[in-house]
Each structure stands twice: as structure tokens, then as C-alpha cells.
Amino acid sequence: MDVRIGIQNSPRELSFETSQSAAEVEKAVAAALAGQSALLRLTDAKGTVYVVPGAALAYVEIGSEESRRIGFVG
Questions:
Q1: Which Pfam families match (predicted)?
Q2: Rounded CA gap, 27 and 25, in Å?
């Protein structure tokens, strides 16, 4: 699933693919925004860990969990 994270006062966004479920990502984001966790910590499909301060989150876009199709539709 694709995840895009906007960070306040930053012209770029973090964009990566993760093997975590949408529910897991949403739970981590909600905890960071509610102040239950000071940091949002997510891991991409390659094992890279992204840590963003919860107070710096501008937005988090969680893509669908559908696998990408290869080939032509016709």
C-alpha cells in the first residue's frame, strides 16, 4: 500500500510503499495526532523506518491495499 506524508514547513512529502495494513497505519497516525505517541513511526516494504514528529504532520494519505495490475486491460 502507498503512503504519503506531508510535513509542515517542508516543500516535499514522504512517499513510500509499506506492507503494513491500512488499519495499522491509521492507528499509528491517530496515536501520534492524539498525543499518545510523540512520533509517527512507519516501516516501508524494504525495511526502511520513517520517524516523523506527530506535531509536524500536515497530512497522511493512505492508499488502497489492492495489488498493482500488470499488463493491458482490453
A1: DUF3107
A2: 5
